[in-house]
């Protein structure tokens, strides 16, 4: 994912499905370096990790 798309997702009032290494995550914060974000697993709010935004993937749900 590129940094601009990550910003759009964070700023949106809609819910998006985003994954990191195949695991569903929430983006908590985008860092000013334009390359990293703090994320947490959707079901484990206390564990946070800093990851490269380029490794995040937007999952498209089939409806």
Automatic annotation (TrEMBL):
InterPro entries in the cross-refs: SASP_SspH
One cellular component (GO) term of this entry: endospore-forming forespore
Location of the protein in the cell: Spore core
Principal location: other
GO biological process assignments: asexual sporulation; sporulation resulting in formation of a cellular spore
Domain of life: Bacteria
Keywords: Sporulation
The keyword Acyltransferase is assigned to this record: no
Matches recorded under NCBIfam families: SASP_H (TIGR02861)
UniProt similarity note: Belongs to the SspH family.
Annotated protein name in UniProt: Small acid-soluble spore protein H (Minor)
Organism ancestry: Bacteria, Bacillati, Bacillota, Bacilli, Bacillales
């Amino acid at each position: 994912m590129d940094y601009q798309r990550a910003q759009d997702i964070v700023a949106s009032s809609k819910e998006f499905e985003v994954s990191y290494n195949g695991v569903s995550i929430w983006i908590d914060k985008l860092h000013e370096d334009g390359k990293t974000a703090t994320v947490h697993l959707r079901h484990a709010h206390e564990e946070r990790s800093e990851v490269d935004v380029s490794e995040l993937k937007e999952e498209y749900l089939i409806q």
